[in-house]
């Protein structure tokens, strides 16, 4: 079958192929789907269906499993031989009620199923759900393609950077001290370019690059101001933002505004924000692929030593690295957010705000653990980047759990609870293979954040003696132990269908009582000492109701 292409006309009617050997079934269902606004074609047998899919790929297939000749199950297996479930949704329909038969269909790659006799409202709901999921998957593929383009641009910028600093190093009139400084800058910028190409979480990456650029340029502070309409708004600052205004007018006379207006690097001894004491300042524009200034990077020194002319090339290179990293991480963040929002469509408790709160608190607890254990800064920066993003995806596997279980307002039966527990392994499968460090950390978090310190959590895994059992104690990955505490603390303080929101005191008492049972006792001790920072991280992402007000 041909490789699918991105849809050039997303507003066209969605196309459905209806495969059924019963003419009456085909005619009745196709007429009703047509009235519902879908473009419907039909096929009377498996061979006809495969030919039509080969000729023109539909958006969705409704496939009868019991057909003479080539069965629906055979058709499904042939489709899945070349087409991924995210590229073509297949909903199987059958009059059989045997669970094993439907299980075979789901194992063969069916996205959903319908039981005959068909009830049209159910058919329509399943069709809309699958087409919506396919639209999200199509969008993610488009974003991934853009991410690859951004990564290529970043690699080109790194090569140009190396060439530029090579030319700088070859200048004959440069004295020894200048040459040593140039070499240091070349190495620093190369390191920053490498770090920019590997980071995932935008906030962690940009803060790391800004801090690295400040050190490389021997500056005391640095800030990034984003162009937003007729204003420049502070987006990132190091070491802190105490003396930096949150916004500046784009048409003003500050050095930040003049850099944005003139698309050029400036080096001055000035009052960078229009007030205060004049200090050595250098800044450069961050320009997107269309030539538009998206932001301005500004570096400031506290002492009298001004920036030199040769520093302008380094500032321009830093701005290019930051722009490439900003574009790449923005696409990554968009992909991650779409995965989270897709999970949130299935589970109302798994909101975008909840996942961000869990990520923020996990980062607080991880840094507290690093402080206690004297973890080197390089490892802290590398793992905090991966942990924050992995924590946001801790419950992504819930997309595989049926609505009847996920949204059930009553207690789950033992069988339903067993199905619910599968969200850990279903989600972890997305990151199997460990192709990158992020895959490893995300896999550990998603699979093991319901493990318990006393060994009574889930899922069961293969032990060294060949038996299956849950992990316990320090067998559980550190990242999963951290996320488990942040997840439970946020859930306790949040309103759910089945509970009221607990007070901070009640939640803290719960954590203390479960230390050594459900949770790592050392991490609980650290968490209790960081509750103010936990609450600050939660405050950054309040829940909002349908009217947009904080819940």
Question: Would you mind describing this structure in some detail?
Answer:
The two termini are 49 Å apart. This protein has 19 helices and 13 strands. It has three domains: 15-118, Response regulator (Rossmann fold), CATH 3.40.50; 142-328, GAF domain (Beta-Lactamase), CATH 3.30.450; 347-539, Hypothetical protein af1432, CATH 1.10.3210. The chain is 52% helix and 13% strand. Strand 3 (60-64), helix 3 and strand 4 form a beta-alpha-beta unit. The chain has helices at residues 23-35, 46-55, 72-80, 99-107, 120-169, 176-198, 202-216, 255-262, 310-346, 352-372, 377-392, 403-406, 414-421, 423-428, 437-448, 478-492, 504-514, 521-528, 531-539; strands at residues 15-19, 39-43, 60-64, 89-94, 112-115, 221-228, 231-238, 247-249, 266-270, 279-287, 293-300, 461-462, 468-469. It has 551 residues and is of the alpha/beta class. Helix 7 runs antiparallel to helix 9 (310-346) and helix 10 (352-372) packs antiparallel against helix 19 (531-539). The strands form three sheets. A six-stranded antiparallel beta sheet has the order 8-7-6-11-10-9, with helices on both faces. A five-stranded parallel beta sheet has the order 2-1-3-4-5, sandwiched between helices. The protein has a two-stranded antiparallel ribbon with strand order 12-13.
Identify the notable features of this structure and list them briefly:
five-stranded parallel beta sheet, single chain, Beta-Lactamase, six-stranded antiparallel beta sheet, 52% helix, globular, Hypothetical protein af1432, disordered N terminus, Rossmann fold, alpha/beta
């Amino acid at each position: 079958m041909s490789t699918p292409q991105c849809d050039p006309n997303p507003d066209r009617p969605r196309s459905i192929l209806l495969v059924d050997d019963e003419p009456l079934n085909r005619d009745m269902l196709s007429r009703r789907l047509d009235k519902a606004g879908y473009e419907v074609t039909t096929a009377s047998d498996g061979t006809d269906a495969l030919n039509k899919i080969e000729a023109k790929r539909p958006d969705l297939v409704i496939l009868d499993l019991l057909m003479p000749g080539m069965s629906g199950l055979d058709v499904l297996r042939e489709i899945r031989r070349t087409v991924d479930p995210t590229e073509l949704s297949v909903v199987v329909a059958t009059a059989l009620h045997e669970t094993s038969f439907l299980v075979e269909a789901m194992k063969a790659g069916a996205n959903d199923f319908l039981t005959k006799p068909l009830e049209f409202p159910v058919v329509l709901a399943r069709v809309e759900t699958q087409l919506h999921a396919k639209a999200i998957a199509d969008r993610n593929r488009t974003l991934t393609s853009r991410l690859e383009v951004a990564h290529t641009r970043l690699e080109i910028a790194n090569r140009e950077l190396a060439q530029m600093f090579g030319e700088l190093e070859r200048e004959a009139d440069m004295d020894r001290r200048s040459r040593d400084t140039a070499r240091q800058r070349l190495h620093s910028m190369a390191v920053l370019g490498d770090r920019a190409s590997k980071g995932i979480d935008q906030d962690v990456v940009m803060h790391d690059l800004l801090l690295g650029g400040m050190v490389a340029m021997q500056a005391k502070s640095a800030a990034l101001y984003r162009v937003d309409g007729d204003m420049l708004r502070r987006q990132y600052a190091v070491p802190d933002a105490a003396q930096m205004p949150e916004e500046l007018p784009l048409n003003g006379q500050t050095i930040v505004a003049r850099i944005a207006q003139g698309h050029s690097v400036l080096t001055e001894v000035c009052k960078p924000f229009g007030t205060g004491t004049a200090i050595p300042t250098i800044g450069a524009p961050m320009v997107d692929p269309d030539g538009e200034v998206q932001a301005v990077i500004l570096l400031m020194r506290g002492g009298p030593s001004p920036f030199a002319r040769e520093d302008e090339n380094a500032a321009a290179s830093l701005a290019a690295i930051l722009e490439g990293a900003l574009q790449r991480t923005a696409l990554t963040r968009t992909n991650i957010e779409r995965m989270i929002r897709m999970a949130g469509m299935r589970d109302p408790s798994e909101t975008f705000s909840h996942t961000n709160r869990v990520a923020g608190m996990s980062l607080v607890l991880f840094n507290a653990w690093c402080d206690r254990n004297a973890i080197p800064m390089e490892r802290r920066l590398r793992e905090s980047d991966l942990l924050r993003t992995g924590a946001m995806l801790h419950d992504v596997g819930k997309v595989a759990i049926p609505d009847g279980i996920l949204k059930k307002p009553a207690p789950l039966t033992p069988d339903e609870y067993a199905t619910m527990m599968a969200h850990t392994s279903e989600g972890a499968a997305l990151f199997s293979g460990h192709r990158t460090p992020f895959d490893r950390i995300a896999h550990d978090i998603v699979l093991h954040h319901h493990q318990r310190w006393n060994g009574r959590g889930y899922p069961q895994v293969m032990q060294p003696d060949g038996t299956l059992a849950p992990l316990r104690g320090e067998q559980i990955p550190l990242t999963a132990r951290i996320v488990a505490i942040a997840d439970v603390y946020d859930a306790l303080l949040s309103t759910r269908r089945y509970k009221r929101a607990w007070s901070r005191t009640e939640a803290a008492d719960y954590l203390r009582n479960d230390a050594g049972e459900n949770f790592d006792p050392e991490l609980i001790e650290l968490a209790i000492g960081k509750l103010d920072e936990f609450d600050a991280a939660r405050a950054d992402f309040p829940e909002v109701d349908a009217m947009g007000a904080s819940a």
